[in-house]
Amino acid sequence: MMTNDDPVAATHRGLARVWIDFESALVQVPVIARLVGGRLRIDDYRSLLRNLRQQVVEGGRWISRAAASFGPDHEDLRAMFVVHAAAEHRDYRLLERNYVVAGGTLEDIRSAHKNVGSEALSAFMYHSAAHPNPIGMLGAMFIIESLGNRLAGPWADRVAEQLDLPPDALTFLRYHAENDAGHMAEFDRAVALAATDATASATIVRHARVVARLYRLQLEELDNV
Fold first, then answer.
1. What is the SS3 assignment for 37?
2. Do 149 and 184 form a contact (C-beta atoms < 8 A)?
3. Burial track 177-197 (b if 16+ CB lie within 10 A, e otherwise)
4. Could you identify which of 37, 97, 144, 156 might form a hypothetical disulfide with 173, taking C-beta atoms 3.0 to 4.6 angstroms apart as the criterion?
């Protein structure tokens, strides 16, 4: 039976609080405010896809670097990260196809620079992934996977309602809505392995808090390169 001092339970409680704060703050970001308010423009959607690609194209690299940073005492975590990196490394191609179907060009989305928030997020993720036994990356992955699991489906529905786009323009959001639940189940198993004490728990929750803020900054700074 879990007690109040159980580090796994404490980690999940801490992550839940971070998520509540993050989700509440997201609806104040201009592009998300327009999305949930029924005022999304096609330029908004293309901008969202264009900016997300710069983060997604590096996602598998962050995770692979983290996997390589786990020592022999964390072989199960390393294996989980390797599998996850393999699952994520081509997601950017969905974004590219969606962008073209939505009226953009491959040249534009592939040549776009990271915005201010994407630069900060990328730097933090690579820095964290390079630490020995980077269990904090679980907190970072919690935010990104929870976005897919909890918000990608509703966001795709809202985009479909507001913009005259074919289903092929929404496959990135639809894919993550359907598949990230499985990733979250894997995440729960990883937390059970990693959150062995209060220090480990605090590290995971802190990384989630940092990434939540940087991810929001990425959305606030669309195309501000």
1. coil
2. yes
3. beebeebeeebeebbeebbee
4. 156
